[in-house]
Amino acid sequence: MEPQQRSPLLEVRGNVELKRPLVKAPSRLPLPGTRFKRRPDQMEDALEPEKKRTRGLDTVTKMATSHPRAPALTARPQMQGQTTAPKVPKKTGPRCSTAIATVLKNQKPGPAVPAQKPAAAAPPLLGGKKPTKRPAWDLKGQLCDLNAQLQCFRERTQTLNQENQQLQDQLQEAQQQARALGAECRTLEGELARVQAQAEQSQQELGNLRAHVLELEEQLGTQEGLVQELQKERLGLQEERRGLATRLEEQERRLQASEAALSGSQAEVASLRQEAAAQAAALVEQGERLHGLEMERRRLHNQLQELKGNIRVFCRVRPVLAGEPTPSPGFLLFPSGPGGPSDPPTRLSVSRSDDRRGTLSGAPAPTTRHDFSFDRVFPPGSGQDQVFEEIAMLVQSALDGYPVCIFAYGQTGSGKTFTMEGGPGGDPQVEGLIPRALRHLFSVAQELGGQGWTYSFVASYVEIYNETVRDLLATGTRKGQGGECEIRRAGPGSEELTVTNARYVPVSCEKEVEALLHVARQNRAVARTSQNERSSRSHSVFQLQISGEHAGRGLQCGAPLSLVDLAGSERLDPGLALGPGERERLRETQAINSSLSTLGLVIMALSNKESHVPYRNSKLTYLLQNSLGGSAKMLMFVNISPLEENVSESLNSLRFASKVNQCVIGTAQANRK
Question: What sign does the dihedral 660-665-667-672 (CA atoms) show?
Fold first, then answer.
């Protein structure tokens, strides 16, 4: 019996193991305990001595005589619909010789064939190229082919695992949406059934009332006919005076009939009184229900405002005015929100070129981009109506008894006064937040009057110039006498603050508010600066004290609405030559920056829940003490200029606003009694 033939690769392996062990050369396979992989060029250099030694052994022992070559391992393409092969775990222990032995061990010996010239092994089909024949001694080539197949299978397995994970995530998300939609559908079905039942009951009551109205109309017609008959009888009695004795019996008979009709009418009147009492009880019940719904609306409205945050920051960029240079296209960018262009923008990007670095290196100045995120960002094209629409619900919270404070912050000429008071000329399109807010409050208060609420409004308008309080509503001889105004408590043990010698004017309509704003514009301190022809050099504080009362239920509520136009925030120029006018501007700027710094310290202290809040460090924070605390709702407008020459001041304003936006002052409490 002819002995079984072995593969040439097994003979080479046996000869190599008998003569000399393989040299421990670098290998592409990972060693135990490490993740380092060898490159193909390192593998080729490591196997080169063994290749030469194998060739020598092949010459001496005549390896290729009458032994068939092992079949080449080729990568079989995966058919459509075939199950993906499982991911092969990454081996870290075996050496190169162990991997070769494993592959050769799995090969099945072929049948004996006549001796012929050995043929080179065909490498795997990669990229559709024609396979190249490899010699039997090319162990490195065969190993590389096996590694290529292994890498291909691993990549395909990893890709399929990723697709499987994505499909599982999509399935979970779809299941969650299906559960949410099912719950919502059940809720809506219950609500529909309740509304249908109420509609049927209302229709039945309406039919009863119609029938009763018809019955009353018939009775009224009967009564009218009876009255007409009595009038005719009276005329007849006057004409027949002489026949009184004869007609006496007839009159008595008619009198009895009238008495019977009167008794019937009295019974009907009693029935009508009972129905009127029932309707009055129903009206009382409806009033109770309406009051409960109003209290629920206020609670939900407050929850909505708390979810948005008790400290919110809006950024507004004013448009480029006539005569101003147009900024470069990439200077200001407004990235879209998470929902795409349809969502209101909440982010702002400012580009700034470092001219100093460009001068030193001789190359163009590099551009640095600064990104900011706020609760809402208004591009230059936003109108006054769009801005007020975002704060209308916050202003309405003042009617519910929550202190509300809205102030505009930014450098000179950035549009703060335009945002708060509006533009000149009385154009409704450019009205500021102050007239729009009061118009909204008057309208809502009138609607709540139908539910039993009565509101009163008292307005005051002061400015803080160089830490001195001035009354902007002063007229006549009191005009300009700001030293007499001081901030005091309203009474012993009272938390309410008032300004002595300041006018507190009751207002009830828009015309009265417009008159007050006109007087305040004439009295406010302005001056010419390098940034603005008429710059506001003081903080103006418009306060509206709101008092509400429900006499039927004994409820009272009251809260202030503070609308503040802060003075321009600019840094001091150390190289500025100081003349008489410049010294005055310097004192103003120092006072403005000091009060704005104190405002930032107060907000940070409230956010950090510190035991001491420095309200008294500035007249501004002391006056707004009740509108900045933990029971208040606060909104800050940071106004910036679109001009590149003001980029330094714009970045300072945006950084300050970002710090304020990160603060949380707690839950607001309504002032109710």
Answer: negative
For the cut 60, the answer to whether the pLDDT of residue 493 exceeds it is yes
Written as one string, the DSSP assignment of 39-107 is: -HHHHHHHHHHHHHHHHHHHHHHTTTSS-PPPPPP-PPPPPTTPPPPPPPPPP-S--HHHHHHHHHHHP
Angle (CA) 649-652-654 rounded to 5° is: 110
Q: What is the CATH number of the domain that holds 460?
A: 3.40.850.10
* Ligand-binding site membership of 330 (annotated): no
SS3 15: helix
Q: Is 633 annotated as a binding residue?
A: no
Integer Cα distance of 316 and 408 in angstroms: 10
Contact in structure between 314 and 376 (CB atoms under 8 Å): yes
413 annotated to bind ligand:
yes
Position 47 in a domain: no
Tens-place pLDDT, residues 370-426: 999 998 999 998 999 999 999 998 898 888 888 999 999 999 889 999 999 888 767
Q: Could you tell me the CA-to-CA distances from 379 to 334, 568, 654 in Å, in that order? A: 7, 20, 14
Tokens of 595: 């009060």
* Mean pLDDT, rounded, of the chain: 76
Question: How far, in whole angstroms, is CA 214 from its chain's centroid?
Answer: 58
- Domain assignment of residue 575, yes or no: yes
Q: What is the 3-state secondary structure (H, E, C) of 579-607?
A: CHHHHHHHHHHHHHHHHHHHHHHHHHHHH
Q: Is there a binding annotation on residue 165?
A: no
Beta-ladder partners of 558:
547
Q: Distance (Å, rounded) from C-alpha 14 to C-alpha 353?
A: 72
Q: What does each C-alpha distance from 258 to 223, 272, 634 come to in angstroms?
A: 11, 21, 75
Check whether 236 is labelled as a binding-site residue. no
Look up the domain containing 360 and give its range: 311-661
Residue 102, annotated as binding a ligand: no
- 410 marked as part of a ligand binding site: yes
Query: Does residue 326 fall inside a structural domain?
Result: yes
- Structural domains counted in the chain: 1
Q: Annotation-wise, does 190 bind a ligand?
A: no
135 located within any domain: no
